[in-house]
Specification:
InterPro entries: C1-like_sf, DC1, PKC_DAG/PE, Vacuole_Formation_Reg, Zinc_finger_PHD-type_CS. This is Phorbol-ester/DAG-type domain-containing protein. Keywords: Metal-binding, Repeat, Zinc, Zinc-finger. By secondary structure, the protein is mainly β. The protein has a domain of about 50 residues. Helices cover about 5% and strands about 35% of the residues. It has a 4-stranded antiparallel sheet. It has a 4-stranded antiparallel sheet with strand order 12-13-16-17, with no helix packed on it. Strands 11-15-14 form a 3-stranded mixed sheet, with no helix packed on it. It is elongated, with a radius of gyration of 17 Å. About 25% of the residues are buried.
Length: about 170
């Protein structure tokens, strides 16, 4: 799939969520962004995920971490109480759990004849401990689409008895 992500506008080349009718596409890592993040930078209020420009009259948002300008057309985090902003790549550097995608959901890929089940089991190991594509441990930290993911997150095909990382090609 080669399309632009509705959250960050980067090109989508691997696994993504999308609607062909609406032409709406999201990277996996954008789809699993948490709605709010408590960060030590702002001890009193959480940074909230913003999907559209804030109606506060400001046209300029600067990331408090990398100090780069944030384009308000794309998703970012903001604390309305402190008027602080953060780009997702800075505030979400490591994810241990994914809250907004249901474990056990089945996804179809053109490159595989069976549905692949999304599985996430932090702190436990899969029945098969290695990815059948790259042969590295499933539970290892992975750098995927600009973010680190830790824990056991991947796809499983029950019929073929295989496990795959999110970022490995689907057989």
């Amino acid at each position: 799939m080669t399309a632009g992500c509705a959250a960050c506008d980067r090109c989508i080349e691997m696994f993504a969520f999308g609607c062909d009718i609406c032409n709406f596409n999201l990277h996996y890592t954008c789809a699993v962004l948490p709605d709010a993040i408590k960060h030590r930078y702002d001890e009193y209020h959480p940074f909230t995920l913003i999907y559209a420009p804030i109606k506060d009259g400001s046209n300029e948002y600067i990331c408090e971490f990398c100090e780069e300008e944030i384009d308000p057309k794309w998703w970012f985090y903001h604390c309305i109480h402190c008027d602080q902003s953060a780009c997702a790549k800075c505030i979400c550097t490591e994810r241990k759990e994914v809250d907004n995608i249901k474990q056990g959901s089945t996804y179809n890929f053109d490159s595989h004849s069976h549905g692949l089940v999304y599985v996430q089991t932090t702190g436990k190991s899969f029945d098969r401990s290695r990815c059948d594509c790259c042969h590295t441990p499933i539970g290892s930290s992975r750098f995927f689409e600009g973010r680190y993911f830790t824990g056991d997150i991947g796809f499983k095909c029950e019929q073929c008895n295989i496990m795959l990382h999110l970022d490995c090609p689907h057989p």
